[in-house]
Amino acid sequence: MKQLVSVFLALVIGFGVLPVMTFAIEPNEPEFEKFVKDIGWNKQDYIDYMESKEWYLEDVESIDDLGTPLSEESVGLVLEEFDLSREELNELLVEYGDIEEGQDVLGGGSRASNAESSVTVLTLPNNV
Prior knowledge:
Shape: elongated
Distance between the termini: 63 Å
């Protein structure tokens, strides 16, 4: 009987100290498929885009953590809606720590940065 209680106690303690598992988004998940359709992207193109930025679906816990990748068109809409110049937008993003001084909202170290540089890529929430 003592052995049975010892084994049971060991199991309870063992499961209690295991890290809580998080559930990643799967590429074939209906919610993800709906998301990419809603933003007007192809599923594989979106996955390729994320991977090009060294982001992976396995690291994302919720569809709410994803957004529409920025483009010249979407940045233009933000500039127009908030009556900002590109430089003013970049200054705000630097101020809030979203990009580094000298970076552009869509690029790396400068407007003429090369594609190989490490860049901060921002995404618009789905409701913008």
